[in-house]
Each structure stands twice: as C-alpha cells, then as structure tokens.
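Project standup — Tuesday

K.O.: blocked on the structure for the chain from last sprint. Re-posting the sequence here as requested.
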Amino acid sequence: MATHGLRAANGYLAVVGALLIWLALLGPVLTLLGHLSWHAITSTLSAPGALDPLVISAESGTMTLAVLLLLGTPLAWALARGVLPWPRLWEAGVLASLLLPPLVIGLLLAFMVGPYTFVGGLLAHLHLSATNTMLALVIAQVYESAPYYVLGAQAAFAGVDYRLEEQASLLGDRPARVLRRVTVPLAAPGLAMALAVAWARAMGAFGAVVIVAYYPTGLPLQIWTSLQATGLTSALPYALVLLLVALPLPLAAYTWSARARSRRRG
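H.V.: unblocked you, prediction finished:
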C-alpha cells in the first residue's frame, strides 16, 4: 500500500515538474500574447507597406527551401547510405556549419561572396550581387538553415529499412525506381519534418542576414528596426506575424510524422 502511494506521489510530482518546464518553455509565447492588443496589431499592420516584410520573408523562404531540396537531399541520402568516402569527415563539415554562430556566418559570407571577392566578381559579370539583395537574403538563409535540413533528412533516410530496398531491387526495380517508390515514400514524414524545421530556421534567420542582406527587409530585420526606432511594443505585432508564418509548418509536419510512426508500430 505504501509502495503504491509512493508511486502515485512520484507520478504526480513528475506531471507537475513536466508542466512547469512546459510552461517555462512556452513563456515567451505566452508573454507575447499577454502584451499584445488587437488595436496594436491592426494599427501596426494596416499601415502602407507594413506587410512587405512578410512577403519578402515568404518569397526568400520558399526559394531557400527549393535550394535545400535540390542540393541538400542528395547529400543527406549519400550520408545516410554511406556511399561517400570518409563519411565522418562529411558529417563533421555539416556539424561545423551547424555550430557556427550566425553572426560569424554572416561575417564570413561577406568575405566569401561580397562585392570585392572572387565569387562577388563572378556574380557581378552576371549582373548579380550577394550584398543587400534577394539573392543575398536567400544565401544567408540557406547557410543558417541547411545543416538542420541535411541532418534531419539524413536521419529520415537512415530510418528506412534497407531490407525493403533490397527486396525491391531483387524484384527487378532499378535504383532510381527503388528510390522513388520505396525510399522516398518511407522517409517522407522525416523529410517533411526536416524541411519544416529548416523553414522555421530560415524565417527567423537574423545573424547572417543583418550583415550581408540588410535589404530587402524581411520579418526578423523588421522586428529589429522597429525595436530600434520606436521601442519594444512596436515590434510585437511583427513578432506575432513571424510566429504565425514560421510555426504552423513544423507543427503540421510533426503531427504527420508522429502519425506515420504510430501506423508503422500498429
């Protein structure tokens, strides 16, 4: 009886502790909602050009995801299947880019693709610039979000049972067909989750963006400029818009991924 009571008490304390941690993690979001008023939202976002940062962030984020899908997916598959020589070296490179502080990424990008660099000169011949342009914004977002997608996609591909791929090959499917009909569908929930996390990371990219792409102004920089110009309160409506744009996709992808795992277990 005493043991049963002790277990019940431990379970109660665990729930209370988890609830406190959960509320602490959600504290910034709850604080945002508590300090916003409908009047502040409408007055800020109804001004002429107020939603331009939203459009810019959506456009650059979409282009960033396209780049990640095109370039990051093959790399993630190669890392998961171990087809590259010295796999630990490749993984270390991805981890290094993940661990670099965003401000350092921006600083190094300025020295790598700035107007007076070799890459900047090549872009100038194409009448392009990687400084304060949409291209610069996409480059900065790619560098801030790519490691999250590559590592997540690698885990998704690694979670596919290779025996299913072998069975499809034994039945006569070519490697490309196996990839299209077996590997990608099974890895799809994990790939969606990785892409959604990269989307949220790209939407919130600031450190690298503020150095190489101060213009055009996306949502994070709009929050910063509003904060600098008129104070904390004026930046809150844009913070809400950023959350509404960045969070739904990861939440939907997480729900889909969780349901897919449940179906496989069931």
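K.O.: great, moving the ticket to review. The two ends are 35 Å apart (CA to CA). The mean pLDDT is 89.
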